[in-house]
Design a protein that fits this description.
The structure is a single chain. This protein is mainly alpha-helical and about 120 residues long. The two termini are about 20 Å apart.
Length: about 120
């Protein structure tokens, strides 16, 4: 399981590298980060676990950036600010979720303690 995202002042642990997928390999639906070529189940479990953790960490970080962008777009000081409804439409969220993401993003940008979880709900 991926670790919780560290607070702003803590260094981030680097997950396993997501190795580059060449175009011809990515076009093959059976190919996935060369996992299909690993015969040893121990090695397969280790590498697939590394990849799963890396994807979770990447998803958590992406959600944090979504939240910060939502908070910036909803900032009342912006002349072109968006409403939670507008943000929800652009991000394909519900309006309630957009409101939570705006608050989560504001907390992240303020460095509020406990805002390190990538799940704003």
């Amino acid at each position: 399981m991926a670790e919780q995202t560290p607070r702003r002042n803590e260094p981030r642990l680097r997950p396993a590298p997501l190795l580059f997928e060449p175009a011809e390999a990515a076009a093959d639906p059976e190919h996935f980060f060369d996992l299909e070529s690993i015969d040893d189940p121990r090695a397969l479990l280790a590498r697939s676990t590394e990849l799963a953790q890396a994807f979770r960490a990447a998803a958590d970080r992406a959600v944090e950036f979504q939240a910060m962008a939502a908070a910036q777009l909803a900032d009342p000081r912006r002349f072109d600010r968006l409403t939670p409804s507008d943000i929800a439409e652009r991000a394909e969220w519900t309006e309630d979720y957009a409101k939570k993401m705006v608050e989560f993003g504001r907390d992240l940008m303020r460095g509020v303690e406990g805002a390190g979880s990538a799940d704003p709900v």
